[in-house]
Amino acid sequence: MSIDAESSDFLRRMAGLVPGVIYIFNHKTKSNEYSNRSIGTLLGYTPQELIDLGDALFGTIVHEDDLEGLAAYFDSLGELADGVSATHEYRDYARDGSIVWLRSIDKVYERDTDGSVLRHIGIAIDITAQKQTEERLRATRRELEQLTYIASHDLKVPVSNMSTLTHMLSEAGELLPPEHSETLGWMRDVCNQAQEKLDALVCVAQANAGEMAPFEPVNLAAVTENVLVSLHCQTTDARAVIRTDFKVPEVTFLARELENMLQAMIANAIRYRSPDRRVRIEVTSRSVENMTEISVADNGTGLDLPRDEGKVFDLFRRAHAVPGGAGVALYTIRCLMHRIGGTIRVEGSPGEGAAFTLSFPQPGA
Question: Distance of CA 326 to CAs 235, 307, 317, 331, 344, Å?
Answer without folding.
Answer: 20, 20, 8, 11, 19
